[in-house]
Amino acid sequence: MKLRLILLVAVVFAHHSFGGMVSYLRFEENTGTTAHDETGLMDGDMLGIWGGSEGWSTDVPVSTIPQTGEANTSSIRFGGGSEYIDMSNYNDLLLGYSFTIEMFIKPDENAAQYGASIFGFGSDYSDKLFFSISISSGQSYFTSQFMDTQVYFLAEEIRFNEWQHVALVKEQGEYSVYLDGQLLHNEGLSSALDGPYEFYGDPTIGTRTIGTFRGWIDEFRISDTALTPDQFLGAYGIPEPGTIGLLLLGIPVLGFARRRLRNPKP
Question: What DSSP character marks residue 37?
Answer without folding.
Answer: B
